[in-house]
């Protein structure tokens, strides 16, 4: 070794000769208790036990770290084994001699023992197949770095360019990489040769580390300091250089494969360690060419993303088809029971085992657990099990159980339980701690065996699964088979929490069933009864997994992709957070540091239909990045002390391993943010547990227990309970009178929780006793608000007629009412009362959440009978309607238990529908009772004044009449700050939504200061178009102008600024329903295809003298008869029916017939069905070749509701011809596409802009002439 700074001496240990080891030299590094390296030689490979014994004897519990290095010959190759540098059971690693020599050299060059110890710990924690000198902490996919990058066509040229630079250091090195350096105070800006700012750089002294606070950087870590400056100047990258060690960080908070906090996500090159044949990494990762737009680092990021996506997809498929079904079957076999409740419990148990395994796997690969740091832990690690299983498969040996990667069935059943026992030992270590393994107790719900904490914890504790039962599921989870048939352990570092979300969301939509007959699957993945010759995928009596449509499917139907999550956060969280931080700064300027520290975390973001919680983990990242930058500019001593206390608690728990782990402030901040700033609700208990797991993984800090998240992430129905105090008090006065009379008593009762809430907020979760205290304090909060919960329960029960609210009672009587039955009703409705669940949010001066995010359910509050039975008896949907009806009737007789379950589900759905109709959700009674309508109102009412909403909604929320009251309320009290439409072309947004469907990314601001202007973008039919369009300014419109476009405040789709200009010009013309004109046309539905079926004749050949019953496809543009009919009708019968309808409707002022004279209505010869008239298709699509399909149809036929027609209270045949021409025109069709999604609704049609030129206008006359031919032709018919 070529160490000039270290003191070299002879290593004397004659007793080692007996172990065939010859001591040679020892070196001592600089500083007090400096690192000691001892070197010896051996004739053959020393075993691990011998090397560790030598280390322990030599170390003797001294403060100085120790590295033992012994070289030996192995089949002609010079090799070495190293052991150290600290701990009770230090790792032993075998490697090439040159690698070991470079390792020891680099460690001895560190200026003190702490830096040497940390360097060795970080280097030795890597996997055996990783390159020395290259370290990836989640910025890229490690697999792509190791295997993809060296295969690039520019690898050789990059290596040649980089080799001469391996000995360069500091600014000299960076200049050689192609940068111009602009020196600032304590940092530099790296610019390309063209002057473009590419990165902020910090050049560190030997005594400084990128992630350790330094006085030169205002007592921040250099990386935090650099990221703050990069944020200010909008520079995308940060480079840290120290003695030839380079790190690259991204300022983005999303997109990296293993994204955690920005300061913890990087790629590192250690040039003193890097072999010369690996020098290409320097150029490809760190050069100016690399950081250029679309440079090599972007290309490697993209390749990493592809690899991660493919890995995630493979794992997702195996989790769904192998892991969960096998675990569920094993649990069901051991625990017993196949009833509905039993299957739910088995499913929850299987998923909890899955969550535990994935938590441990991720924590190991992210080095949050002491893998490759503590040898005892490493021997028992999940990664070690994965390596052993991979080696067994690669060597062609029997696993002893079915191989899920090859579908090889093992005849003999392995009855040993060592795999399950090993995993249970890991569960115990994480939950309770294990000193020998170097694992402090992390506690938390997930690993608890207490049934009061984890409902299935005791079941898992008492389970004993054989290798035959557990082995296939475990192998499918932790071992991967790549497309090129490479089998090896999965690198969970490549899967961010967001990728876990894609795996989890499909599980949340799934459940277990027991097959009553052998099942196969069709090409769409739908389970069907197996016939002779079919491939049987589920045997009779087996438990199988399926989604709510009876499909074997591993993806969530509405999982929101990261780009959409980031978009909504940028347009809702970011602006609201900036306003919040200005208020914090104002307190600091006034010298109120304690108040500023408290206010900093008083920023509350919620997702009230959170699923797996991936919106919330993204929020934690965004808040942490902004808080870190803010605290860099405006230090708050109270916050600094809290972070220091958490760091000390973590180091105390880690003991001897503390020196090997550097805990960044960003990690601690993320943890505090998750505990104090984010809230989530979901009806599905598994979803809530998943969200907690995701948050625990994302905010995990070595040494600190898993945070108490039971209070913030809650189980319940966000729609069925009480949303706000004002909502409740309005019900108490029956919507009439002064509700504020009762508001203050309710608040006063809630304030009983303030003291325990303050204590709960101050508990730092630093120890397991803190977690226990937090759990007890949360229970105390629940007891304190129980009286308010009872009152709210009674209000909910009253809404659906299962309780009453007395008239004329006083505020003193509020909490004296009997609420026992009401509590049962509320529990049955899973009602969550927001002021009760989160009183700290609603007792603030400005009550409500600062921001609400999410993607709410879009389904209707109904139970479809066929779907219910087909879910339990696959194949029902493949029969004809009469057969389906008979089979369901038979099943109802044979399975009264399931029939009773169906009736309960129908009753629950009806109860939910009644509650939604009677709740604070105006418009729910218009159209279908879609849940998104109610959620839209919930978002608006739960967010505070000046708060923001950022949600994914179907376009109908922005266009349908049922959501009009909500849109008007938003425009009255705030604005749609950004509405970005996405066309789901080729399923680029949601894979299971129709490709012609449009969804909206909707960002709302609440408060009069934000009202007056709204902004629109899109629709974007692809990610590429979205990326291009999002960089341009949105189309802006005044609210006043917008409201004139339609009577229902419906949103148009404006794909470009030019489209906005055209739209504005068209809108200058009068609406179709303008009353102050010389002619007037009104749309009418003639027959209802369902309700009027009894008046129709259904047969292929028309009866004698029968009239056709038209549907939408019965006519086309300029074609009055396509020959496709819905049915037939007897003229005498149908005209009588229509005459009675017309006379009845004439008395309704909302009917078009009310505009006609009574004589005309009473005259049967004037019935519209007897005469030619303009009809149009109701069902259409804006992406069809033509959206408005209209024609002048002949007389003596009738129309269903899918083909409305126009009636003419005023006007003549020339007006009719003129309107027909306009409706059939391309400009009008273009306009219609701005609003139409799947229907030409009347409120859309009535708002069509129709030019009204003078009757002698030559252009009008030309239109009349052209369309008049059609008019003449129809009248002749």
UniProtKB/TrEMBL annotation:
A Pfam family assignment? Eco57I
Q: Which organism is it from?
A: Rubrobacter xylanophilus
Q: Which InterPro entries match?
A: DNA_methylase_N6_adenine_CS (IPR002052), MethylTrfase_TaqI-like_dom (IPR011639), N4_N6_ade-DNA_methylase (IPR050953), SAM-dependent_MTases_sf (IPR029063)
Kindly give the PROSITE patterns that the UniProt entry links to this protein. Answer: N6_MTASE
Q: Which GO terms describe its biological process?
A: DNA modification; methylation
Leading EC class: transferase
- Protein name, as recorded: site-specific DNA-methyltransferase (adenine-specific)
Q: What is its EC number?
A: 2.1.1.72
Q: What catalytic activity is recorded? A: a 2'-deoxyadenosine in DNA + S-adenosyl-L-methionine = an N(6)-methyl-2'-deoxyadenosine in DNA + S-adenosyl-L-homocysteine + H(+)
Keywords associated with the record: Methyltransferase, S-adenosyl-L-methionine, Transferase
Q: Where is the Type II methyltransferase M.TaqI-like domain?
A: 677-861
Q: Which GO terms describe its molecular function?
A: nucleic acid binding; site-specific DNA-methyltransferase (adenine-specific) activity
């Amino acid at each position: 070794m070529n160490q000039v700074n270290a003191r070299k001496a002879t290593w004397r240990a004659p007793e080692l000769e007996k172990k065939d080891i010859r001591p040679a030299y020892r070196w001592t590094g600089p500083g007090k208790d400096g690192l000691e390296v001892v070197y010896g030689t051996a004739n053959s490979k020393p075993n691990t036990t011998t090397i560790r014994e030598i280390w322990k004897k030599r170390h003797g519990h001294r403060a100085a770290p120790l590295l033992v290095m012994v070289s030996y010959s192995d089949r002609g190759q010079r090799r070495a084994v190293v052991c150290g540098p600290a701990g009770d059971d230090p790792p032993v690693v075998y490697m090439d001699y040159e690698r070991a020599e470079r390792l020891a050299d680099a460690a001895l060059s560190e200026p003190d023992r702490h830096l040497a110890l940390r360097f060795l710990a970080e280097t030795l924690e890597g996997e055996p197949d990783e390159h020395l000198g290259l370290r990836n902490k989640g910025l890229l996919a490690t697999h792509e770095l190791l295997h993809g990058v060296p295969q690039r066509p520019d690898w050789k040229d990059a290596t040649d360019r980089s080799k001469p630079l391996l000995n360069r250091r500091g600014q000299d090195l960076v200049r050689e990489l192609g940068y111009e350096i602009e020196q600032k105070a304590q940092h530099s800006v790296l610019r390309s040769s063209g002057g473009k700012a590419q990165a902020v750089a910090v050049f560190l002294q030997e005594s400084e580390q990128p992630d350790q606070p330094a006085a030169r950087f205002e007592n921040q870590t250099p990386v935090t300091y650099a990221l703050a400056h990069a944020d200010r100047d909008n520079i995308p990258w940060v480079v840290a250089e120290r003695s030839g060690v380079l790190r690259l960080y991204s300022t983005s908070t999303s997109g990296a494969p293993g994204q955690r906090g920005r300061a913890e996500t990087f790629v590192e090159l250690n040039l003193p360690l890097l072999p010369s044949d690996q020098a290409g990494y320097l150029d490809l990762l760190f050069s100016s060419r690399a950081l250029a737009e679309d440079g090599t680092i972007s290309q490697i990021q993209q390749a990493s993303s592809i690899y991660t996506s493919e890995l995630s997809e493979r794992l997702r498929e195996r989790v769904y088809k192998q892991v969960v079904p096998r675990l569920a079957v094993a649990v069901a076999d051991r625990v017993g029971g196949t009833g509905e409740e039993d299957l739910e419990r088995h499913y929850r148990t299987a998923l909890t085992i899955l969550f535990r395994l994935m938590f441990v796997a991720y924590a190991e690969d992210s080095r949050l657990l002491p893998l490759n740091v503590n040898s005892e832990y490493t021997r028992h690690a999940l990664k070690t099990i994965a390596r052993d299983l991979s080696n067994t498969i690669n060597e062609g040996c029997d696993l002893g159980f079915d191989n899920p990667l090859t579908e090889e069935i093992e005849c003999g059943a392995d009855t040993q339980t060592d795999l399950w026992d090993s995993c249970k030992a890991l569960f115990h270590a994480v939950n309770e701690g294990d000193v020998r393994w170097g694992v402090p107790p992390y506690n938390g719900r997930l690993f608890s065996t207490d049934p009061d904490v984890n409902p299935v914890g005791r079941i898992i504790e008492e389970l004993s699964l054989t290798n035959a039962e557990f082995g296939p599921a475990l192998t499918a989870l932790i071992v991967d088979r790549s497309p090129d048939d490479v089998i090896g352990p999965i690198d969970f570092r490549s899967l961010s929490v967001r990728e876990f979300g894609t795996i989890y969301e499909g599980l949340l939509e799934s459940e277990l069933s027991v097959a009553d007959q052998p099942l196969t699957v069709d090409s769409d993945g739908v389970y069907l009864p197996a016939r002779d010759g079919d491939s049987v995928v589920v045997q009779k009596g087996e438990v199988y997994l399926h989604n709510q449509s009876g499909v074997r499917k591993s993806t969530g139907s509405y999982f929101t992709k990261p780009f959409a999550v980031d978009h909504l956060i940028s347009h809702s969280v970011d602006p609201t957070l900036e306003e919040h931080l200005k208020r914090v700064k104002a307190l600091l300027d006034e010298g109120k540091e304690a108040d500023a520290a408290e206010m900093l975390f008083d920023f509350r973001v919620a997702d009230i239909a959170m699923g797996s919680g991936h919106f919330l983990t993204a929020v934690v990242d965004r808040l942490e990045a902004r808080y870190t930058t803010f605290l860099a500019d405006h230090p708050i001593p109270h916050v600094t002390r809290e972070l220091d206390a958490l760091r000390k608690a973590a180091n105390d728990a880690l003991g001897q391993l503390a020196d090997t782990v550097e805990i960044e402030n960003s990690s601690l901040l993320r943890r505090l943010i998750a505990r104090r700033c984010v809230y989530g609700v979901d009806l599905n208990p598994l979803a809530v547990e998943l969200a907690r797991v995701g948050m625990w993984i994302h905010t995990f800090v070595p040494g600190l227990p898993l945070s108490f998240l039971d209070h913030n992430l809650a189980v319940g129905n966000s729609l069925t309970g009480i949303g706000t105090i004002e909502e409740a008090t309005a019900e108490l006065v029956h919507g009439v009178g002064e509700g504020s009379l009762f508001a203050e008593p309710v608040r006063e009762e809630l304030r009983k929780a303030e003291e325990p809430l303050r204590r709960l907020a101050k508990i730092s979760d630093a120890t397991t006793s803190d977690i226990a205290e937090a759990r007890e304090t949360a229970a105390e909060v629940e007891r304190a608000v129980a009286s308010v919960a009872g009152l709210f329960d009674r209000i909910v029960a009253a809404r659906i007629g299962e309780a009453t609210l007395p008239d004329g009672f006083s505020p003193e009587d509020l909490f004296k009412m009997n609420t026992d039955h009401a509590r049962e009703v509320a529990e049955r409705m899973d009602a969550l009362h927001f002021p009760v669940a989160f009183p700290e949010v609603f007792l603030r001066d400005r009550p409500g959440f600062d921001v609400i995010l999410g993607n709410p359910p879009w389904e209707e509050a109904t139970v479809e009978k066929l779907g219910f039975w087909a879910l339990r008896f696959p194949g029902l949907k493949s029969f004809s309607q009469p057969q389906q009806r008979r089979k369901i009737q038979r099943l109802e007789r044979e399975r009264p238990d399931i029939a009773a379950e169906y009736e309960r589900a129908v009753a629950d759905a009806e109860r939910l529908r009644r509650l939604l109709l009677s709740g604070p959700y105006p418009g729910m009674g218009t159209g279908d009772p879609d849940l998104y309508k109610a959620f839209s109102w919930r978002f608006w009412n739960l967010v505070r004044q000046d708060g923001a909403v950022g949600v994914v909604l179907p376009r109908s929320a922005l266009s349908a009449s049922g959501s009009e009251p909500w849109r008007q309320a938003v425009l009255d009290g705030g604005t749609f700050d950004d509405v970005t439409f996405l066309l789901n072309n080729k399923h680029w947004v949601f894979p299971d939504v129709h490709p012609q469907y449009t969804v909206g990314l909707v960002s709302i601001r609440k408060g009069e200061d934000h009202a007056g202007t709204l902004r629109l973008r899109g629709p974007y039919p692809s990610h590429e178009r979205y990326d291009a369009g999002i960089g341009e300014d949105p189309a802006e419109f005044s609210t006043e102008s917008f409201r004139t476009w339609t009577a229902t405040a419906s949103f148009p789709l404006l794909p470009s600024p030019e489209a906005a200009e055209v739209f504005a010009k068209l809108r200058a013309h009068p609406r179709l329903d303008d009353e102050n004109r010389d002619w007037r046309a009104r749309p009418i539905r003639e027959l209802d295809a369902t309700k009027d079926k009894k008046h129709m004749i259904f047969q292929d050949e028309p009866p004698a003298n029968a009239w056709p019953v038209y549907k939408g496809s019965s006519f086309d543009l300029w074609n009055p008869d396509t020959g496709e009919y819905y049915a037939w009708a007897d003229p005498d019968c149908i005209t009588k029916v229509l005459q009675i309808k017309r006379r009845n409707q004439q008395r309704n002022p909302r009917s078009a017939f009310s505009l006609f004279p009574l004589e005309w209505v009473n005259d049967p010869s004037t019935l519209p069905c007897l005469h030619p008239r303009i009809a149009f298709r109701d069902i259409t699509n804006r992406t069809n070749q033509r959206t408005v399909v209209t024609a002048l149809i002949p007389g003596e036929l009738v129309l269903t509701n899918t083909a409305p027609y126009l009636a003419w209270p005023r006007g003549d045949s020339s007006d009719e011809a003129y309107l027909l021409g306009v409706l059939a025109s391309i400009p009008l069709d273009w306009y219609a596409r701005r609003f139409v999604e799947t229907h030409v609704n009347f409120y859309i049609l009535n708002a069509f802009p129709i030019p009204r030129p003078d009757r002698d206008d030559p252009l009008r006359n030309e239109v009349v002439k052209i369309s008049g031919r059609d008019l003449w032709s129809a009248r002749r018919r």
